[in-house]
UniProtKB/TrEMBL annotation:
Keywords: Membrane, Transmembrane, Transmembrane helix. This is Ig-like domain-containing protein. PANTHER family: BEAT PROTEIN, BEAT VI. Residues 29-147, 165-201 form the Ig-like domain. The chain crosses the membrane at residues 29-49. It comes from the Eukaryota. The keyword Transmembrane helix applies. InterPro entries: Ig-like_dom (IPR007110), Ig-like_dom_sf (IPR036179), Ig-like_fold (IPR013783). It comes from Tetragonisca angustula.
Length: 305
């Protein structure tokens, strides 16, 4: 339409080269005419191609086949070209007027399954994590409007952890006042798994989260380790038990749990006298110290009465 407008202005110039005054008088109507064309095209455009909407998965596992679709409403327009881009580079094009209508470009173009891809869809096989990122579809209507619409979406291609999460805790029995310390390790993947904890069904924050690099060829893989560290209060136990669950998720693609049941250790005189298993001597020693402190404070208070 811009070309059309220039052409009108050009004809006028040739006709009116000798009569500059007249040219200025006529410039106004020609400008209005041009504006009218622009407006008309704009209005026609609004009634043509519309409602573009990209539909790609949020995340897929590496190596799988992915359907990407791009919906649009042509209304009275006809399709001129449908293009797909990844990170700004075109990888697939569909032009109904050409034979064959499909063309592909670049490394990602080689992954297009041509006989499953068309004016609304592109199907890609064997995607690897380096194809995580922004995808764009662009649709253009044919003449007279040549309206072009785009929509974008972001897709993660994930290397999922190979294996289950594992929990490790310092010990099994705890008394009120003890600190529960443990961690949950999820095998490496890219991106690393999200790790969360619940204790008797109640969410508890991790004390730390680490992503540990584990290089594997070109793909950087990360192992997740989350720590749990909390002090037991009288309400912590449910029927003398703590059910601790570590949840590991990678989008909707990997959802696994590891759990452990810890037990309440009721204070007994025997434990104060040091008959606990030797491996828990650290915890017991602290308790003995506290018991003596309590006893000392009690004696002190008594002596003041
Ligand atoms: C892709 O689309 C085709 C046809 O619509 C369907 O049969 C297939 O299951 C889809 N594949 C995936 C991975 O969604
Ligand atoms: C698509 O092409 C492949 C070979 O490139 C062929 O094996 C497959 O049968 C074709 N599928 C359809 C639906 O035409
Ligand atoms: C993506 O990674 C694969 C290996 O997983 C490699 O062969 C390919 O060259 C990489 N492509 C790009 C664009 O980095
Ligand atoms: C995880 O817990 C185990 C057992 O308590 C411990 O040996 C290990 O050092 C812990 N690892 C980290 C990273 O905290
Ligand atoms: C857990 O972490 C969130 C976000 O960092 C914070 O808002 C919340 O207060 C924390 N909860 C506890 C019990 O520390
Ligand atoms: C671990 O990696 C994820 C994704 O790469 C990132 O969002 C998160 O902040 C990282 N966590 C830590 C503790 O480095
Ligand atoms: C981790 O959780 C955050 C917040 O819910 C989410 O945005 C992100 O996509 C998750 N990452 C993975 C790898 O599941």
């Amino acid at each position: 339409m811009i070309r059309r407008r220039k052409a009108i202005a050009g004809e006028k110039n040739e006709e009116d080269t000798m009569r500059s005054a007249a040219r200025y008088r006529e410039a106004r109507p020609s400008l209005f005419a041009s504006l009218f064309v622009v407006l008309a095209v704009f209005v026609i455009g609004v009634h043509g191609l519309k409602d573009i909407s990209i539909d790609i998965p949020l995340a897929v596992a590496a190596g799988t086949t992915v359907n990407m679709s791009c919906g649009y409403d042509l209304e009275s327009d006809t399709l001129y070209v449908m293009k797909w881009y990844y990170k700004g580079s075109e990888f697939f094009r569909f032009v109904p007027k050409e034979m064959p209508p499909t063309s592909t470009f670049g490394e990602l173009g080689n992954k297009v399954i041509l006989n499953k891809s068309d004016a609304h869809r592109v199907v890609l096989r064997d995607l690897q994590p380096n194809y995580t990122g922004k995808y764009l579809c662009e649709v253009s209507g044919d003449s007279p409007s040549f309206t072009t619409l785009v929509d974008v979406g972001y897709m993660h291609v994930a290397n999922l952890p190979k294996g289950d999460p594992q929990v490790r805790f310092e010990k099994i029995r705890y008394a009120v006042g003890d600190t529960v310390r443990g961690n949950c390790t999820v095998p490496s993947g890219n991106p690393p798994a999200n790790v969360t904890w619940t204790v008797n069904g109640v969410p508890v924050n991790s004390s730390f989260i680490m992503n540990v690099t584990d290089k594997l060829g070109d793909n950087q893989q990360l192992m997740s380790i989350a720590g749990l560290d909390f002090e037991i209060i009288p309400d912590s136990f449910s029927n003398g038990r703590l059910h601790i669950v570590c949840n590991a998720n990678v989008f909707h693609l990997y959802k696994k749990q590891a759990d452990v049941r810890l037990m309440e250790e009721r204070p007994r005189l025997a434990s104060v006298l040091g008959t606990r298993e030797s491996s828990y001597i650290g915890g017991a020693a602290i308790q003995i110290k506290e018991w003596f402190l309590d006893a000392a404070v009690t004696l002190l208070l008594c002596s003041f009465r």
